[in-house]
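Tutorial handout. Part one gives the primary structure; part two gives the three-dimensional structure as tokens.
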Amino acid sequence: MGEEDSIYTQDGTVDYRGDPAVRTKTGTWKACPFILGNEFCERLAYYGMSSNLVLYFKNHLNQHSATASKNANNWSGTCYITPLIGAFLADAYLGRYRTIAAFSIVYVIGMTLLTLSASVPGLKPTCVAKDDCHATAAQSAVCFVALYLIALGTGGIKPCVSSYGADQFDDADETEKKHKSSFFNWFYLSINVGALIASSVLVWVQENVSWGWGFGIPAMAMAIAVVSFFSGTRLYRNQKPGGSPFTRICQVVVASFRKYEVKVPENKALYETTDNESAVVGSRKLDHTDDFRFFDKAAVELESDQMLKGSVNPWKLCTVTQVEELKAIIRLLPVWATGIVFAAVYSQMGTLFVLQGDKMDAHIGPNFEIPAASLSIFDTLSVIFWVPVYDRIIVPMARKYTGHPNGITQLQRMGIGLFISIIAMLSAAILELVRLREVRRHNYYELDHMPMSIFWQVPQYFLIGCAEVFTFIGQLEFFYEQAPDAMRSLGSALSLTTVALGNYLSSLLVTIVTKFSTKDGSPGWIPDNLNYGHIHYFFFLLVILSVKNLIAYLFIAKWYKYKRPLGTLR
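Part two.
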């Protein structure tokens, strides 16, 4: 076999399209255990530190409730913004395999530094009692440097792992294509199995053993994630990076404005390569669509577009596929925007739900006390319950009635999740109304933990988990499928940024309501002692925003046009 036909790339991975004979030896479910194992360990590491982070900020870095909540939201939001960096590098230059490998190293460095900041004398905060600690500015700085290194590391992993797993299934093979839809369900399940261990065992370790071990165990889990990923190297299928997607998008925009006076012909074909393959590496050709016709001007061929030796100037003339790539991204943006409010609802599990539970009775029997952050275990159990139910029961039943291969469309799936999230926030608001009524009735204002079981929070966590299965998994699959082939990491990153902006939105709302609700000496909606607060007002605010968001989503989903790929990947 000649060098140009080698099935192995420079980093040892398999380019199965170089030799179709190896197609049966690579990809599909054979490669997925290593990818799912990587995601399980990485999410165990992530949730192992993030689930209880708001209480670490409050009790060990000595931050106020509102400040701790904002800092946790801002960090979590950054973890979902940095995927834009990783996605760009993966799609444009490095490919998904190398991007995951490189950023995993940054992630491990960040986890190690965070562990040191919580365990080494001089770096860790000084404590006079269990939850009475004081951190210097330098100690807080080390903690935040570690956290934002982790945020950078996750930026190269999150947008690529789900897409990389989906790459192991060939769209040209109907059997493999059907398995791809199942992969997203089981991928999300692996996330939540990791989260289950994190929110139960690791949160308990942080509360009852030490934060050094509480952060150290996730650091070890991340090291195992790296080993798991590299173990499957020879089984992976890899798609070549297609060059900068932003350059191609800019070329279409520039070419369109250069030809703003040109009329798009009704009968004459627009410019496209004559080959069966797309001019964009790693992408299939896309069929022309009639919306956003202004950008079609970029594919109208003029004599002035030609350069020397018959080549064309890409800043004057673009292919139909290139134009349709831009249109596909534009169509995704309204759907993407409706995910932000849902993500704001989801972010409450790591902030206000925890602070709410921290004021309730957390005892199981006379001697064991469950940490408030561990209630997120019921969100995870909900996901673990609903994923197989959805994949094995709901989809086959729906398929019989709709004839759709996935039972229901991805847009329908996401809409159901948005509706369930409204019920979840109503549940949280009603619980807080009941809790405050008991506080007033029995004068529990100064109690650290009122005699009302924390397990009354279970319904709101369980409903959020159910909503996740519909909305977040639907988003993963939708943005992977509808993004142009050479921009799939970018599509996954785009879906993740809804989580980031949801966290930022929640942080902004907390800032606004704190400013306006604390005037004239009032304790406000979210005081340090929630027994004097009104966080149910905040939950009702999210209900109102979610209802308006769902109405907007229904109009957007009705308008949306699915992309139409032609041929096979290059």
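Part three, for discussion. The two ends are 20 Å apart (CA to CA). The longest strand covers residues 126-129.
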